[in-house]
Amino acid sequence: xxxxxxxxxxxxxxxxxxxxxxxxxxxxxxxxxxxxxxxxxxxxxxxxxxxxxxxxxxxxxxxxxxxxxxxxxxxxxxxxxxxxxxxxxxxxxxxxxxxxxxxxxxxxxxxxxxxxxxxxxxxxxxxxxxxxxxxxxxxxxxxxxxxxxxxxxxxxxxxxxxxxxxxxxxxxxxxxxxxxxxxxxxxxxxxxxxxxxxxxxxxxxxxxxxxxxxxxxxxxxxxxxxxxxxxxxxxxxxxxxxxxxxxxxxxxxxxxxxxxxxxxxxxxxxxxxxxxxxxxxxxxxxxxxxxxxxxxxxxxxxxxxxxxxxxxxxxxxxxxxxxxxxxx
Length: 328
Ligand code: TYM
Known about the structure:
Elements: E1 3-8, H1 16-29, E2 34-39, H2 41-44, H3 51-67, E3 76-79, H4 85-94, H5 99-103, H6 106-114, H7 121-135, E4 141-143, H8 149-166, E5 174-176, H9 211-219, H10 237-250, H11 254-260, H12 266-291, H13 296-323
Parallel strand pairs: 1-2, 2-3, 4-5
Helix pairs in contact: 3-12, 4-7, 4-13, 7-8, 9-12, 10-12
């Protein structure tokens, strides 16, 4: 069975972009692949997080993994910090990655462009820790949204270089980017990615938003004056984004959506998108409410951590011997 690995960084509440671009795919794949879906909590502290809030977000993130349909008996779920081998391999890979490569990472460049003074070393080396997360499990595939593709490509380069230098050690993984929904855009500014750090809070639908709020955000989504529901991201980014959301959550193709709304106004379309989104959130939230105060969270983490540790410690040991930092 091929192995798939991915993670989410709970720097805030998970949103519809995380669900469509990543989490819903982990759920889809768990019957066909061996899925490892962890919580990237070390990655969160590359930017300061209020500790109490972070703890809440971590717990919510595990609960949402389960509420969205991940089954801990099929999918390995754990916190990155509970498998310390990630950080150790991260350092080893840091020593096998060039500054020039990290300097080219778009996310890093964007952060620098916004706030050069407050950039931590952690943000700069973040992709090497991400490479360790992936390579330590010999993952075949890494299902992620479009914004993480460059990091997975770097991971491939690092793996190939390491294998050439120290002998075949790591599987070289493939990024798996969904055809539809790989980049859900902000509802208030459809030229920007929907993101946890949405300052206005209007462009991002959180999985735990109350349904009235979520509906309002969709109904107020920025569109255009063309008046035709069609997929044209360049000229109609707002409508195209709503089509991506509808298509991902309903399995209708863009052609089917365009046909269905021929001659109808954007209001009707938005109302239906809001219905599809609210149906999805309602189901997730019902399960989340049942899980959040139960022992299901700890049970899932106990099963997942044990499995992950076994795999990770074996790989780290092999790496350390190859690099020569262990006495054999
Ligand atoms: P993070 O937490 O920013 O995002 C988690 C996943 O959600 C996807 N995503 C989106 N997809 C579609 N539209 C959007 N607007 C959108 N926003 C986010 C991301 O592409 C990602 O798949 N570095 C990673 C976490 C990580 C990781 C890993 C992932 C750490 N180690 C190893 C894979 C493998 C991150 O910050 O994702």
